[in-house]
User: What shape does this take?
Amino acid sequence: MKRLALLGASGHGKVIADTAECCGWQEIEFFDDAWPARQTNGYWPVVGDTTVLLSSLGRFDGVLVAIGNNRIRQAKLLQLQAIGAHVVSLIHPSATFSRYARLGVGSVVFAGAVINADTQIGQGTILNTGCSVDHDCVLGNAVHISPGARLAGGVEIGDLSWVGIGASVRQLILIGSGVMVGAGAAVVADVADGQTVVGVPACSLR
Assistant: This one.
């Protein structure tokens, strides 16, 4: 029986658990720092906090950080990697993931996502439901591409950036680290580190 530990009992975690079941994981348990007040996450049990997880990794065949916040997800992933935990990645069976693309450890690809040839995805990245990432894109660590977002070919995105639901990014655009792209935005020019951009065409808020 394949057993998976998920750190972070959130709505995002539910989607990861559901994806994991579709990928053949048979027993899934959550760990969350709200435990013991939090005992379940949807259909799945919450059985401990981070400390409990770190002491019980031997019971599991894999572990994944199921936290939507990019910075917290990256910190927890690094903590697990530092102690040699077997961190896994997941690709939903209904996603289209090119055999010529590369996926970093601790990343998830949800249902309906399309990832094309020669794309490189960093560690701890979320490619959410129905998003598309075209050829030759390079995504850093702990990036989140939200549901329905679209990246054209050759886009580069730095660590810890978030592309909002339904946003579009023109080909060959460079998006820096720690960037927030608003829902439905159309990014047609490069975006510097730490910027928040919204609108059509996308403009900086700061």
User: Anything to note?
Assistant: The chain has a mean pLDDT of 97. The helical segments are 11-22, 50-55, 70-82. Residues 8 and 66 are 5 Å apart (CA to CA).
